[in-house]
Amino acid sequence: MDYEEPQFFRVIQYARRADRDVVDMVSGSPDWDPPAGVRDGLRDYAEADAAQFQYAPSEGLRRLRERIAARRDVAVDRVIVTNGTGEANHLAMTGGLDHFPGEEIVLTDPVYPYYAGRANFLGAETTLVPVDDSGHLRPAAVRAAASDETAVIVVNTPNNPTGAIYGADAMAEFAAIAEEHDALLVSDEVYDHFDYAGRFSSALRTDSPNVVATNGFSKTMAITGFRIGYAVFPSAEGPTGDLLERARTRHMLTNITTSRPAQYAVERALATTPPDYYARCRDRLADRVDRLCGALDDVGAEYTRPEGGFYVMARFPDFPGTFENVYELIDEGGVAGMPGEAFGSAGAGAIRFALVTPRVETAAERLRQFFA
Amino acid sequence: MDYEEPQFFRVIQYARRADRDVVDMVSGSPDWDPPAGVRDGLRDYAEADAAQFQYAPSEGLRRLRERIAARRDVAVDRVIVTNGTGEANHLAMTGGLDHFPGEEIVLTDPVYPYYAGRANFLGAETTLVPVDDSGHLRPAAVRAAASDETAVIVVNTPNNPTGAIYGADAMAEFAAIAEEHDALLVSDEVYDHFDYAGRFSSALRTDSPNVVATNGFSKTMAITGFRIGYAVFPSAEGPTGDLLERARTRHMLTNITTSRPAQYAVERALATTPPDYYARCRDRLADRVDRLCGALDDVGAEYTRPEGGFYVMARFPDFPGTFENVYELIDEGGVAGMPGEAFGSAGAGAIRFALVTPRVETAAERLRQFFA
């Protein structure tokens, strides 16, 4: 497996070239409007003094870091604002490989392709641990796979693509396994606002010095194009304190700092967005989950109802989710999903549907007709 | 040497804490207003459809890449839009180390500290080649230093901190040396609009497959905070074609893509900014060069008049540019410069003055008084 974009791109291009209407359930970009504060922040920034158009501090605008630290209940010094959650994961994974003795990265199967692509690019050994039938990575399975060769364990909660959420107990176990093997737990929590089960628990709550949590505003604020994410590293005073300094240096030498208009707008939105905005986004997606799952039930598909995030993986009777069948579903059914094999062996045969389209009901109707 | 920020920060903080007025000539952030198109672009972007708030293509917005390609007279496929010139240099230097057999990076002494910091971070061997008395890196000196161990040669034209510009002949020689030793010439051309001598010649004009040119809009458009830069890689069809693909992959796995509001605003500014804007910026800086150099002449300082860029390195009689003396110049003279030793051994004893302040005449007067 290489990395995500080309395979996604290939399916999206195919859907666009189809000579019929197709509901795009491939890409993971939110389809709703960002909070008003994002636009207000950009408007104000456009009128700012010339000095505000110059470098932000390398680790991010102070007020933005303070708001992030307050939300995550951590010391502000532990927060680095990054060019999206992607860079946050990059800093965390490279940091873990640099700091800890092992050279192996443990990932979940099915896997978000960027994790696997990055691990390959970095020359790390990759071990994929299959999820259970409910789409959850089980701590016992991670424990069986991890060894002193392990430098990094990556978990994603809520999970893309399975929709699993890990509760506090599972998170504590993941962190304990990392500690036992002198490794780093990287917890990508970018979908944390999309928790339908009410059981999300940040890895930061483990208070482990072997944990980095990553997150961002791409999904929560519907601004994937802004590239504002962050990583929370262990305290510089603790036993793994040099992870933070090394990440700061890597961030500075790679990017200097993150784009300031985007940082400014996100800070404004954090200050002004009422909880109701996030609740409406979550409820909208919960409704879409209901609609799609209703159709999946009607056609006899196997799937696990997502606890969080905005993806559903499904297996249809006698219709494995190969690229060929996905193309047929586009041409004949008018619905575009992503072949599960793009997410590794455990995904093979399934199709992943992203719920970030207002036309989920149309897609549901079409699936009923196609599989009737 | 580690990297730039902390040492710069240390001097800037000292100057701010001084209990007198100080002209800051330390930092390299432009003090003038960006072109109107930058603000107009942001204003329009703030009203854009939600879809425009989502991911730009990984290599950058197509229209922005097309404008860059047209300006540099290269095929658009060779252009990657990066998170500032910093990431462009990072992609180029890491790409050269990955692709070519050597493990050494050849840098100019005095050196822009980020180059040296990055080389150290990447574990490369670093060879510093001193400039001549006029602040120029001589091709003969590079030829004497380069070997088959060399993977990357970095030049900066116009040069920070010496102000040297390399003409077409020198550039052709640098590229030839890179080709002879199976290495990459990385030419950082971020100050190309600030050419007082009229002799700037892009490394791209060499048409060598062993050249990557990097650039950005931080200085030209006075938007260091936006982080919009770019790298022009050799054609994918040529003998070094995999450099481009590898850089695309690294960019995607590190940053996914660059912040879209900033890309959008820069594209607008490229489309709408009249040549007059750039000419005024250049003339303003040329006037500041005159004013500062007048004072340096009056106090008997040794310096080379910059051909380009916006820095002047000077040596004062019996007043070496140590941190201690720089602090004295702040406290007693009211002018803050950067100790030359921050730029490596060839800079030791000099002080670098950045001309990005409207108060250059005040600084000139204060230098005359201090050194009277």
Structure write-up:
- The structure is a homodimer of 372-residue chains.
- Chain A is α/β, with parallel strands linked by helices and 372 residues long.
- Chain A has 2 domains: 4-34 and 275-370, Aspartate Aminotransferase, domain 1 (Alpha-Beta Complex); 36-272, Type I PLP-dependent aspartate aminotransferase-like (Major domain) (Aspartate Aminotransferase, domain 2), CATH 3.40.640.
- Chain A is built from 12 helices and 13 strands.
- Chain A has helices at residues 4-17, 36-46, 62-72, 84-99, 113-121, 139-145, 168-180, 242-255, 260-272, 275-298, 323-333, 360-370, and strands spanning 23-24, 79-83, 104-109, 125-130, 150-156, 184-188, 211-216, 228-232, 302-303, 311-315, 335-336, 338-339, 351-354.
- A 7-stranded mixed sheet of chain A has the order 2-8-7-6-5-3-4, with helices on both faces. In chain A, strands 9-10-13-12 form a 4-stranded antiparallel sheet, with helices on one face.
- In chain A, strand 3 (104-109), helix 5 (113-121) and strand 4 form a beta-alpha-beta unit.
- In chain A, helix 2 packs across helix 9 (260-272), helix 4 packs across helix 5 (113-121) and helix 4 (84-99) packs across helix 8 (242-255).
- The longest helix of chain A has 24 residues, at 275-298.
- At the A-B interface, helix 2, helix 4, helix 5, helix 8 and helix 9 of A face helix 2, helix 4, helix 5, helix 8 and helix 9 of B.
